[in-house]
Design brief:
Organism: Phytohabitans aurantiacus
Protein name: Carbonic anhydrase
Keywords: Lyase, Zinc
InterPro entries: Carbonic_anhydrase, Carbonic_anhydrase_CS, Carbonic_anhydrase_sf
Largest sheet: 5 strands, mixed
Structural class: alpha/beta
CATH class: Alpha Beta
Number of strands: 5
Radius of gyration: 18 Å
Order of helices and strands: HHEHEHEHHHHEE
Strand order of the largest sheet: 2-1-3-4-5
Strand content: 15-25%
Shape: globular
Helix content: 40-55%
CATH architecture: 3-Layer(aba) Sandwich
CATH topology: Beta-carbonic Anhydrase, Chain A
CATH superfamily: Carbonic anhydrase
EC number: 4.2.1.1
Number of domains: 1
Distance between the termini: 35 Å
């Protein structure tokens, strides 16, 4: 575990998926209970990171301004490799960024982080229901989420937060289906992919999806 006074792990950052996930859970619990320790945010640690980074988790999350990963997981500099898009929609740049963290930085955990009351998911649900289609490049964001809404519709699900959970699971599946390097790392047990949903009011993150092996 971390040393809150030194601001780092005496034995180094987590190198296994289980330990990395445990650190995120612990950090979120500190955030929820108001007992944050703000690790790895001191000048000494900043200087130590100047030559290299060893993040222990990739956070692929929604761009929502209330979803700041380092804050809600009570982490600091060099801890998290963060990639964010509206509705955690993905393209080649997102996949490449995640693959870089997993294959070059050897990050042992990838988290897909959505949240309740997601505006992007709501826009997609409204578009499927026959509402006004967004214009400009926002249309691409909505179009990327529509398949998740369609899955929810096939299950008679209309609640936005349940649709968010489906979208998180589909994003986890999409990552493994479209990234061979990530799928190989998961199959080898050196990395895991977990889906989480952040609750805006409570500040709590709950796990809703996960893969510990590659999809067949």
């Amino acid at each position: 575990m971390i040393d809150p006074h030194a601001g780092h792990w005496p034995e180094g950052p987590p190198v296994t998926p289980d330990r990395a996930l445990a650190e995120l859970r612990d950090g979120n619990q500190r955030f929820v209970t108001g007992t944050r320790i703000h690790p790895n945010q001191d000048a000494e640690h900043r200087a130590a990171l100047a030559g290299a980074q060893t993040p222990f988790a990739v956070i692929f999350g929604c761009s929502d301004s209330r979803l700041a990963a380092e804050i809600i997981f009570d982490r600091g500099l060099g801890d998290l490799f963060v990639v964010r898009t509206a509705g955690h929609t993905m393209g080649p740049e997102v996949l490449g960024s995640i693959e870089y963290a997993v294959t070059v930085l050897h990050t042992p955990l990838v988290v897909v982080l959505g949240h309740n009351s997601c505006g992007a998911v709501t826009a997609a649900r409204d578009a499927v229901a026959g509402g006004t289609q967004p214009t400009g490049h926002l249309r691409a964001v909505v179009d990327a989420i529509v398949p998740s809404v369609s899955v929810a519709t096939s299950r008679n699900i209309d609640d936005i937060d349940q649709i968010v959970d489906i979208h998180i699971q589909r994003t986890v599946d999409h990552l493994l289906a479209h990234s061979q390097p990530l799928a190989r790392a998961v199959a080898a047990g050196t990395c895991a992919v977990v889906g989480m949903s952040y609750q805006l009011g409570a500040g709590e993150v709950r796990e809703v999806a996960g893969q510990t092996r590659a999809l067949q």
